[in-house]
Amino acid sequence: MRFTVLGPLTMEPGRLPSAPKQRQLLALLILHAGTIVTVDDCVDELWGEQPPVSAHSTLQTYVMNLRKVLRSGNDGDRIRTRERGYALRLEPGELDLDEFRRLAGNGSASFAAGDYREAARLLGAALSLWRGPALVDVHAGPILRTQLEGLREAHLAVHDERVEADLRIGHHRELLGELRVLVRRYPTHENLCAQLAVALYRSGRITEALSALRQLRATLADQFGLEPSRRLQSLEQAVLRADPALDLAVGHGPGYLLVS
């Protein structure tokens, strides 16, 4: 079977349950595949702090229905009952999230080894698995919300590193449109702003590079009463003096600029 969570929840072959809470439970079990999800955690995810009296029996019904949905040929039961809860069994290669993590890990390793072209390829392949926000069509309770926030952060971190790899191999002009969208989406993300400023500078658009940095300064001051970090201030000064270092590799991994 094949399961996807990096976008809408899908399962092939087969048909997903239509009941929202059953889909929610399936998503919870998928994200915890191979480990036990306790009954208490299942109840907390599905009903929050005020579960109905029938919560445990209803949960058992949901699990029984999911077992039927997931049963395929001689594959046996995918959901195992344990003393404290339930565990979903997935085989290698069945979950897009696992593939994302594998590609992202290999891409980061290539980046650390200085193979930026291979890093950009692998990290780009990892990002291509996303078809929208993770589990976009599944209602999220307290446990799923925390996990989805972690997935959003992981997605952004991989994006950040892939952009950095592309900057290292001279793709600054190709990055401009993508970086403008990202900076608009994450207006206080310093590293994305720095990457946009560097890409603009290398494209001969110095005033726009300064404008991007000053817009970040204004946003931080307006929303949080903060100044940009020292590295962003150093980058602004480097742009002003046309520091030759800006024409070289300016990062050493996501979030760190070698600009003094």
TrEMBL record:
<dbReference type="InterPro" id="IPR016032">
    <property type="entry name" value="Sig_transdc_resp-reg_C-effctor"/>
</dbReference>
<keyword id="KW-0804">Transcription</keyword>
<dbReference type="InterPro" id="IPR051677">
    <property type="entry name" value="AfsR-DnrI-RedD_regulator"/>
</dbReference>
<dbReference type="InterPro" id="IPR011990">
    <property type="entry name" value="TPR-like_helical_dom_sf"/>
</dbReference>
<dbReference type="GO" id="GO:0006355">
    <property type="term" value="P:regulation of DNA-templated transcription"/>
</dbReference>
<dbReference type="InterPro" id="IPR001867">
    <property type="entry name" value="OmpR/PhoB-type_DNA-bd"/>
</dbReference>
<keyword id="KW-0805">Transcription regulation</keyword>
<dbReference type="Pfam" id="PF00486">
    <property type="entry name" value="Trans_reg_C"/>
</dbReference>
<comment type="similarity">
    <text>Belongs to the AfsR/DnrI/RedD regulatory family.</text>
</comment>
<protein>
    <submittedName>
        <fullName>DNA-binding transcriptional activator of the SARP family</fullName>
    </submittedName>
</protein>
<dbReference type="GO" id="GO:0003677">
    <property type="term" value="F:DNA binding"/>
</dbReference>
<dbReference type="InterPro" id="IPR005158">
    <property type="entry name" value="BTAD"/>
</dbReference>
<feature type="domain" description="OmpR/PhoB-type">
    <location>
        <begin position="1"/>
        <end position="90"/>
    </location>
</feature>
<dbReference type="InterPro" id="IPR036388">
    <property type="entry name" value="WH-like_DNA-bd_sf"/>
</dbReference>
<dbReference type="GO" id="GO:0000160">
    <property type="term" value="P:phosphorelay signal transduction system"/>
</dbReference>
<dbReference type="Pfam" id="PF03704">
    <property type="entry name" value="BTAD"/>
</dbReference>
<keyword id="KW-0238">DNA-binding</keyword>
<feature type="DNA-binding region" description="OmpR/PhoB-type">
    <location>
        <begin position="1"/>
        <end position="90"/>
    </location>
</feature>
